[in-house]
Structure of Peptidase S10:
Amino acid sequence: MLFRLCWLLLAIFLASCSGGSDSEEDHAASTFETLFEPPRPPVPIPGPADAIPWSDPDYGPEGTFGLHDFTETPTSNVHTIYLNGNAIKFAVTAGHLKAESSRYPSSSSQGKAAIFYTAYTRDELPEGTRPVTFVFNGGPGGASAVLDLNFLGPKRIDWNAPGSATLPLADNPNTLLEKTDLVFVDPVGTGYSKAVYPSRNEEFWSVDEDASVLTDFIIRYINANHRQESPKYVYGVSYGGIRAPVIGRMLLESGTAKYADKKDSKNVLTGLILNSPILDYEADCMSNDASCGGSLPTYAAVAADWGKSIELKGKPIDTIPDNVVPFVSAYNKLYDSTFSGVDNSKAPDRAKWEAFLKQPAAPPFLNRLFELTGVGKLHKPGDSAANNPWIAQPNMNSFEFSWYFDAGKDDAGKPLKLVLADGRATITFDDTDSALDRRSDFDPLAKLYQEQFIGYHSNLGYMGSNGEIIDKWDFWSHHPDDPVNPGRLVSSVPDLSESLSLKPDLKVLVQHGYYDLNTPFYQSELVLAALPEAIKVPVKLYEAGHGIGPEDGPKDKLFLYIRVRRDLEAFYDQPLPGIVLAAIRSPRPERVQP
């Protein structure tokens, strides 16, 4: 099986790009022929091997803490921020808790890790009713600090402040601290988290071991801080679409058995928030030989934003899914019957596809792809793979779409390609897409913030983005008892289904950006459609890319941030024994004028 796994680490790009308005015929020629001149074959699309590596022996596969290299005594401080004219006093706590995987007996010295966390709590409020949210980044290989500072936590960097020796900070008006306490958690091999000897980091680099040790961390945190009765939420971004539902299922299956006290608590798990999630790698065409039909609405949304979708030009963004979805169904059926062999990793076979290209149905199909996505050209007799990318690769994944889309040139005349995290943004072809760049320029800022604001010091570097993890991650062993496909790639849908069966009133919020090429929104809708009718999970859509946050932005984007914050607040305010209030493809909000 070909495993074309892209680096799905959180990257937030909300800059808007406007494309030129060439005629359709001019654009059709420039899309493929200018950038990929025949008779050259299509340019190879980058994969994990092309990503820029970043490693540190402390956080590598063999990395480990000695028994005396860390302490469970945390660092704490008290601060105040001002939100909506109110003074909000809170405690910030950072440190490690030792957690263990359920794979080993508790008496064993193996299967243990020291998990680093940063917690923000309003200790003056009653713990029994005050929610607590455990926040996880994606990757796998991403630490949580990028979701704390500037995003959901109480502080953001004030880039407009005068230069000084300290990191300039301002209150974050969009923090979730008004609604919930926040615990930002770093999985093994990220942040300051490592295995504890004799275990090694790599032992926790799999779907189940990762979720198991993090589930135990949550229970240990609950016991250490007497949060047994608090409503509990798990928030996951990107790969968090796998991690959070698996943790949720493990928490519900464990119940209160490991609680130190208050074992009659009813608040084992209240809700899941899945931000830009990947839910099923088997169905993801960037990871596996699968149909890319679920990506077509995202391609169409990107093309419409650039003014390059003939069919969707000028239509409101919220009408795009309904315009494209019927075609997706036809596309997926044709993939199954005709062109799945083009992507066959063991023995590529174009025979059925080439035969289809000779039929009368081929030109309308190719033209519809062009009219929706702006990639390719209107079909003419004699066209071939040399001058039409849809003929060369009918099952175009996001990597290929980002390269083939005509995004123009920069001021120096260099051709541009789309950014995977947000198809409205561009980089030059010789730049590394942030979704493939396994380094993190944010790490020094995170470490400085921890030292200056929290008072936490470590002799380790903060590992915000560990590029070694994804290459060694075990995506296959989850649900190994699948009788239909025991070797399938991981899906969290069975875990979500089981969680909703165990707790029918579990609240679930799924958020996606229309322009996110990393985790296309309609692919999640297709995957979630497999859930039983009684436990359907809605998807909230936003004019955004990968990683949807309530942070500040340009005035013309203010409507987006207001919506995101409002939806999150409504989710927390929702009565516990209820259903998710979010509606699929909710009406487009009025834009706030600058």
Notes: The two ends are 51 Å apart (CA to CA). The chain has 15 helices and 14 strands.
